[in-house]
Amino acid sequence: MKRTRLFLLLCCGWLTAAQAQITLNGNLLTDAEKPVPATRIGVTAGPGDITDSKGQFSIKLPLDFIEGERVLLVVDKKDWLINHPLDGEWNLPAKKWQEASTQYTKVIIVPKGSKALWTHARIEKHIALLSDEIAKLKKEGDKPKPVDFSYYISEWADKYGFKPAEVKAAFDQWASAVKDSTDKRTKALREFYQRNFVLAARYFDEAADEGEAELKEIEEARRQKVLEIYQNRKDAGNSLSTVYQFAEALTKYEKASALVPREDFPGEWAEIRIFIGNTKQDIGTRCEGAKAAIFLKESEQAYREAFEIYTREQLPQQWAKTQNNLGSALQEQGIRIGGEASAALLAQAAAAYQNALQVYSREQLPQDWAMTQNNLGTALQEQGIRTGGEAGTDLLAQAVVAYQNALQVRTREQLPQQWATTQNNLGLALQAQGIRAGGEGGAALLAQAVVAYQNALQVYAREQLPQQWAAAQNNLGNTLQAQGIRTSGEGGAALLAQAVAAYQNALQVYTHEQLPQQWATTQNNLGRAFQAQGIRTGGEGGAALLAQAVAAYQNASQVYTREQLPQQWAATQINLGAALKAQGIRTDGETGAALLAQAVVAYQNALQVYTREQLPQPWATTQNNLGNALKAQGIRTGGEGGAALLAQAVAAYQNALQVYTREQLPQDWAMTQNNLGTALSEQGIHSGGEAGAALLAQAVAALKASLEVRTFEQLPVDWAQSQNNLAKSYTALEDWPNVALCYANVLQVYPDHEQAYQTASYLYHEVLHQYPADYASAFALNENWLRRHPEDLSAQCDFAEKHFTSGRFPECEQRLAALLTNAEIKQSSQIALRAIQIANFAALQQIQRIPATLETLQQTAAAQPDTLQVGWSFEGTKHYISVEPQLAHYRDWLLQLLAAIEIKEGREAILAALRQVEADLKTVINRDK
After folding, report:
1. How far apart are CA 874 and CA 564, in angstroms?
2. What's the rounded Cα separation, in Å, for the pair 182 and 364?
3. DSSP per-residue codes, 727-750
4. How much is the pLDDT for 3?
5. Residue 456 to residues 425, 464, 509, 571, 853: CA-CA distances in angstroms?
6. Is the CB of residue 366 less than 8 Å from the CB of residue 406?
7. Per-residue model confidence as pLDDT tens digits over 212-236
8. Rounded Cα distance, 78 and 65, in Å
C-alpha cells in the first residue's frame, strides 16, 4: 500500500536581513483534538520535523519559498489523511503575517474510511475536478457522449478507504442538502453532478457574473481607498510644506505618487508631479552647489512629465499653470550658473512664461496674467543682467514692460501687496538699466527705481509686513548707492548717506538672531556703501568710513562661512578685499602695505571657492580684483619686488580674460582689458628702455581693445576711464598728439576735469603747434572750459593768448585790456600779457602803441623781487609769430621780446634783456620808415 503523504501550510515568520526565511509552526492533531506525537512532517521535496509530545513541530523552509506560494506538507502516518486544511493545501500568507509573533496552526488528520472526510467542501472540490476531467475527454461523433461518474466514484472510494456505494451515497446526500442553496456555484455543481449540464452552465455563468460584479465593487472600493490614502498622503505633504518642512513634505508626496500610476490615475499622477516639482524647487532654492542643481533639475523634469496629461488642448489652465512653474524652475537654474548655459535656461524660462500667457489673458484671467507678466519680467531681467550690449539693454527694457503690464491689474487699491511686490521688482529692473546706461539717461532710470521702491514701501509697512519692508529698504539702499557713486560733490555724498540709512533701516528687522542670512546680506551691502563714502571722503573721516566698511564685511562673514555658505563667503571676501585695498592705497608706510597684502589674501581666499571649473564668472571677477590689489602693491613697492607684483597682476588679468571673452561677456572683457592696460603701463614705466617700450605698446593695445566695447555712445563713463588711462600710457611713450586727443576725449564726459583740460590745452597750444588745426583745438578747449568756469583767471589769460594765436586780434585786444586792469591778475602774468599785447599791436598795425606798452612792461618787471621768473610758456605763441605772414616784419624783434621774458636768471637779467629789446625796437621802427 502507498505511503500517505499529508500536506500542510502553517503560519510563518521571516528571519532578518539577507537570510530571511519562512518558518512553519504547527500542531498535528486527530479529529478528536488529540496530539499526534513522534510523527515526521515535511514539505514535499523539502525539509521536515518530528512532532513532540504535544504534537508540535517547526520547519524552516528554504529561501526560495515566497509569500503567496502554495505548499504541501507530508505526514508519515500510514492510512491517515489530512482533513484540515483541505487535503493539506495552503498558500503562504503575506509577509506581514509571516513577521507576526509565533502562532501554532492546527493540522487535523483522520484515518482512511472516516466519514469526517466527506465534508461539503471536499465533495464540491471533487465535483469541480470531475468537470475538468470530463471536459478533457475527446468527443466522438456529432452528439455528446453519455457521462458516467462511476469510474471516478470508484477511484475516490479507493483513495479515501470507502466502498463506491458509500461515496455515491455521500454525494447524493450532499445534493439533497444543498437543494435550496442560494449560492450559484453550489447550485451549478449540484446540477452538474445530476447531469443537468445546460442548467449547470447557466448557474456557473451566473456565479461568474456575480463574481464580476463583486470584483468591480471590490476594485472600485479599492480605487476609492487608494484615492483616500493618496489624498491623505498629499495633504500631509501640503501641511508640512506650509511650515517649510520641504524634505519631509517631499517624502509624503513621493509616497502619494507611488499610489497613483499614470495608467490608472492620470489626473492624480499629473497633479502629484506638480507638488513634487514645487517641493523640489523649494528645496533646490534653499541649498547650494551640486545638491541645488540636482533638485532644480528634478523639479523641471517633474513639470515636464505633467505635460503628458496637462495639454493645452484638453486642460489649458493646468497646462498654463505648469508652464509658469516650469519657468520658475528653469529661472532658478539659470540664475545659479554662468555662461551660455545660464542664458539658455533663462531664455527657456521666458519662453515658458510666454507659453502660459497664451492661456492667461488679461480679459479672462487677469490675476494669473499679471502674475505671469511679473514672473516673465524677472526672467527677462536676469537675462538682461547677464547679456552685454544692445541685446542686454533690450532685455532689461522688455522686463520693465512686463512689470508695467502686471501693474495694470495689480493696482494698489485692489491688490496692494502684489502691487508692492511688482513695484519692488520694477525697481530692480530699472536699477539694472540705470547702472548700465550711464550719463543722464542712467541717472533718470535710477531715479525711477528709487520711486518704485518708495511706492512699494507705501504698502510694505514695518509693523505689518516687516520682512518685505526690510527687503525694499535693502533694495532702495542699493539704488541710492548706485546713484551716489555716479553723482559728484555734495549730492553724491547725500545719496550715499541715504543708502546707509536705508540699510540700517533694514537691519532693524534683519537681525543676526532671527534672520541671519538677510542680516549678513545687508551687512555686506552696508559695507559697500561705507566703502563708497570712504573712497570719496578724505582724511581721517574717509579712513573711519573704510574701517566701518571692513567691520560690516567681517560681520557678514560671521554668517557667510566657507563651510555653510561658501559662495556668499567668497563674495564677502571679495568685498572685504576691495575695502582693504582702498584703505591700503590711502595709508602710508608699512600699515598701508599690510592692508594691501590683506586685500590680496582676501581675494585668494575667494578663489578657494570660485574655481574656473565650477564658477567660471565669479572666478574671473576675483582674478580681476586680485590683479587690482597686486597692481596697487606693485606700484607702491617699486624695485624688483614691485616688478614681480605687477607681473602677477598682469597674469591675474590674463586669467580673467580666459572667461571674460568679448563675444560672451563684452563689458567684463573690456573692463579687464582696461585694467590689464594700466598694469602693463606701470610695468613699462618701471622697466624703461626697449623692454619698457614694448610693455607700453602692449598697454596701448589692451586699452584700445577696451574701447571696442566701451564706446562714447553706449558706455560714456567707461569710455572716458579708458581714454584717461590711454593718455597716461601715451605720455610714457611721449606720443603727444595722442595724449592730447585722449584728454580732450575725457573732457567730453567730464567737462570739469581740470587735469585733462590743462594737459590737453597745453599740448595743443605749446607742444603741437606745428599742426595748424591744434591752435583751433586749444581755442575750443579753452572756450568750453570758460563757459563752465568763467571765474578762472588763469584760463582767461590763456584764452586771450589763444585769441592772438588764432588770428582774432581785435577780440584779443579787448580781452587783454580787461585783464590788465584786473587787480587780481598776478604781476608776473601781467608782464606776459603785456608781451602778448605788444605782439597783438603789431598784428593790428598799431605800432605807435608799442613803445608805451613796452615801457609799462619794464616798469612792472622792475617792481618785482630780484628772483623774478615770469613762468609763462610762449612756445605756441613764438611758433605762431614765426609763421604768421602779417607779423613777418616784426618777427625777429617779437621773438627777442618773448625770449627776454622767458629768462630765468632773475629780475636784473630780464630788465637788461628788455632794455636791449627797447633799443632794437627803435631800429625796427626806423627801418620801417
Report:
1. 68
2. 61
3. HHHHHHTT-HHHHHHHHHHHHHH-
4. 29
5. 9, 13, 17, 28, 72
6. no
7. 999 999 999 999 999 999 999 999 9
8. 28
Q: What is the pLDDT of residues 468-483, one digit of tens each?
A: 999 999 999 999 999 9
Query: From the CB of residue 25, how many other CB atoms can be counted at a distance below 10 Å?
Result: 17
What is the rounded average pLDDT of the residues 376-387?
92
Q: How far is CA 395 from CA 272, 399, 405, 496, in A?
A: 34, 6, 15, 28
Maximal CA-CA distance, the chain: 177
Q: Residue 781: is its pLDDT beyond 50?
A: yes
Stretch among 23-27, 172-176, 606-610 having the lowest mean pLDDT: 23-27
Per DSSP, the three-state class of 35 is strand
Q: Rounded to whole angstroms, how far apart are CA atoms 529 and 546?
A: 10
Residue 360 grid coordinates: 492667461
CA distances from 628 to 574, 600, 700 (A): 12, 9, 18
Angle at 506 between CA 505 and CA 507, to 5 degrees: 90
Question: 79 burial class (0-12, 13-18, 19+ CB within 10 angstroms)?
Answer: exposed
What the block records as the C-alpha cell of 423 is 513695484
Nearest Cα to 471, choosing from 432, 429, 433, 525? 525
Place of cell 513695484: 423
- The closest of 482, 429, 419, 423 to 454, measured between CA atoms, is 423
Using the predicted structure, report yes or no on whether residue 405 has a pLDDT greater than 80. Answer: yes
pTM: 0.59
Helix axes 736-749, 754-762, angle to 10 degrees: 140
Q: Among residues of the chain, what percentage have pLDDT more than 70?
A: 94
- Could you tell me how many helices (H) and strands (E) the chain has, helices first? 36, 9
Cell, residue 430: 530699472
Mean pLDDT score across all residues of the chain: 89
Instruction: Give the residue carrying C-alpha cell 590737453.
Output: 760
Per-residue confidence (pLDDT) for residue 518, from 0 to 100: 93
The residue type found at 927 is: R
CB distance 30 to 55 below 8 Å: no
User: Per the structure block, which three cell numbers stand in for 857?
Assistant: 612792461
Residue 922 has pLDDT above 90, yes or no: no
Q: How are strands ordered across the β-sheet holding 23-30?
A: 56-60, 23-30, 105-111, 80-84
